[in-house]
Amino acid sequence: MMSGFMEYQMFIDGQWTPGLTGDKMEVINPATREVVATVPRGGREDVDRALASARASFESGIWANKSVEERAQVLMNAAMLVVANKERLAYLESLTSGGTIRRTTTVDIAEVAGTLLLTAMILKELPQVEHTFFSPPWVAPMHTFWKREPVGVCAGITPWNFPLILAMYKIAPALAMGNSIVMKPASITPVTTLELAKILTDAGVPPGVINVITGPGSSMGNYLAGHPEVDKIAFTGSTEVGRQIAHQAADTIKRVTLELGGKSPIIVLDDADMEVAANMCLLGFLFHSGQVCESGTRLFVPRRLQDELVERMISKIKKMVIGDQLDMETDLGPIASQEQLNTIDRYVHIGKEEGAQLAYGGRQLTEGIYEKGFFYEPTIFINCHNQMTQVREEIFGPVQCVIPYDDVEEAVAMANDSIYGLGGGICSTNISRAQKLANRLRTGTVWINTWHVLRPDAPFGGYKQSGYGRECCYHSLLAYSEVKHICLDLTPDGDDKLMNLLIGSNR
Ligand code: NAD
Fold first, then answer.
1. For ligand 1, is residue 165 a contact (CB within 6 Å)?
2. What pLDDT was estimated at residue 135?
3. What number is the average pLDDT over the span 273-289?
4. Which atom of ligand 1 is nearest to the CA of 238?
5. pLDDT at 133
6. Residue closest by Cα to atom 14 of ligand 1
7. CB of 12 closer than 6 angstroms to any ligand 1 atom
8. Class of 264-448 per CATH?
9. Active site residues
């Protein structure tokens, strides 16, 4: 396994490129706070330069004019290279984001390679041209068809929790449809997006079609999001920043997809298998130590079952290994940053102050192997109600809020009483009953008796303030294309029927 300090540059126009400011940002291992890499702290000139490169590549047609088969082949080549570089990518992803190596080597790599492969397959099947026949008496015979074209220059802005997967959810459909793209990864986890750009270039993506710039979101990301050279922006991150981006995009009517925050409800029904429920609820809030947008963090449970379910969850938590994310035996890695650790702790304090009852955890781990890193105990609050701050707001950490209910109608109403609508779930042994309730949850995804199962061939996205647009599947390919209608007069002989209608046939 590789190790040692790494000094990265930006990736612009097919080349490793130093930042124009000369400033650097440090990338740390969140389990040890050790600086493992540096990247350029880019500024506005770097954004301009990357967008100019993307624009030039787009206008040249070097990628956009390639056939569907050629673009699909490059995506498939890239999938093979991702698999060939699996160890390096998974290691870097774990090292910098805190995700466990057991997960990154399996789930993350499979999802990244799978997204490339499936996008290539869907691209080849997606109708690029559609025809129609329309021949009313007032026009001559026309050949009328419409075709898909790329949007142009796209900007992708991603958060720090799943840098590889979330970058690929944008890059694959953008490239598939012939766009050029500039990616801006989160400041604390830029390394694997840079590595992806190099892999895609090695796979055959021409210079300028994929660019990665590094720098702070508040200055560089903000400038990118409002830039007139950007035709489409694809943003994954907090609802707060998503709102700003939607405002900025409005000035030049950019195409926008927003994948934002969540506070996803799990409804355990009274007929649920308690073992299944305990597993589902733990998976829901502890995957990647809770730093997942679709985490199930509002747990509605029949009042009489609350104690039994929570006891089962706690006994499983006690067996979990929390520690070094690079160790294959670790179940829960560190929180990604000091800032996020502070946020989690602040919400736990608010929960206590607002009267939620702490059933487990509730503190930062600071001793022994945890001394230098950002570790937080899995935390369960019970006897919460749906109006408490820590129940309403996204925490983005390993904190579960259990809300007992007496009537399932009340549970559904509370589940939908949220500004968010990303994920939702039902736990029940009665599948028909669960499906009926799934239809009533106002969320982009509903899991029944499981959680977090995302697939590159299934659409993912949010209702309400969890965003708009869908990633993955053919939905994302549509979102990276414009539709052009071409209408061709098949018999242009000077006798234009529509013109005659306008000016009268005698004149
Ligand atoms: P964030 O919104 O703070 O940052 C996301 C990205 O935006 C980063 O690259 C950041 O540098 C950049 N950014 C920050 N301010 C900006 C600005 N003013 N203009 C342009 N770019 C700016 O989010 P985060 O803390 O990195 O990630 C956690 C959030 O992401 C959570 O809310 C989580 O729910 C959300 N998320 C959503 C999904 C999804 O698919 N819906 C997936 C993962 C994470």
1. no
2. 77
3. 98
4. 32
5. 74
6. 217
7. no
8. alpha beta
9. 259, 293
Contacts of residue 262, defined as CB under 8 A and 6 or more positions apart, other chains included, come to: 293, 294, 295, 394, 420, 421, 422, 423, 462, 466
Task: Give the Å distance between the CA of 186 and the centre of ligand 1.
Answer: 7
Strands 180-184 and 467-468: unpaired
Q: How far is the CA of 505 from the centre of ligand 1 (A)?
A: 62
Say what percent of the chain tops pLDDT 90.
Answer: 91
Over the stretch 338-376, which tens digit does the pLDDT of each residue have? 999 999 999 999 999 999 999 999 999 999 999 999 999
Q: What is the 3-state secondary structure (H, E, C) of 452-505?
A: CCCCCCCCECCEECCEECCECHHHHHHHCEEEEEEEEECCCCCCCHHHHHHHCC
Beta-bridge partner residues of 484: 147
Q: Where are the beta strands (DSSP E) in 167-276?
A: 180-184, 210-212, 232-236, 255-259, 264-268
**Ligand 1 and 25: CB distance under 6 A:** no
Q: How far is the CA of 155 from the centre of ligand 1 (A)?
A: 14
Q: Longest Cα pair distance anywhere in the chain, in angstroms?
A: 96
The residues that bridge with 379 in the sheet, in sequence order, are 399
Structure tokens at 418: 């949220």
Give the pair of three-digit tokens for residue 338. 């000091």
Q: Provide the mean pLDDT of the chain.
A: 96
Does the CB atom of residue 170 touch ligand 1 within 6 A?
no
- Superfamily per CATH, domain 9-30+67-131+144-260+466-485: Aldehyde Dehydrogenase; Chain A, domain 1 (3.40.605.10)
Task: Report which DSSP code applies to 106.
Answer: I
The residue to mutate among 238, 244, 264, 475, having the most atoms of ligand 1 within 8 angstroms of its beta carbon, is: 238
The contacts of residue 399 (CB under 8 Å, 6+ apart) are: 285, 290, 297, 344, 347, 348, 351, 379, 380, 381, 390
Q: What is the whole-number distance in angstroms between the Cα of residue 23 and the centre of ligand 1?
A: 23
By CB neighbour count within 10 A (0-12 exposed, 13-18 middle, 19+ buried), where does 392 fall? middle
Q: Which atom of ligand 1 is nearest to the CA of 169?
A: 40
Provide the token pair at 222.
Answer: 């903000």
Q: How many whole angstroms separate alpha carbon 476 and alpha carbon 491?
A: 38
Ligand 1 contacts CB of residue 395 (under 6 A): no
Nearest ligand 1 atom, CA 157 = 9
Radius of gyration of the chain (CA): 25
- Work out the pLDDT band at 505, boundaries 50, 70, 90: low
Global pTM?
0.96
Ligand 1, atom 26, lies closest to the CA of: 159
Calculate how far, in angstroms, residue 185's C-alpha sits from the geometric centre of ligand 1. Answer: 9
Task: Parse the chain into domains and list their residue ranges.
Answer: 9-30+67-131+144-260+466-485, 264-448
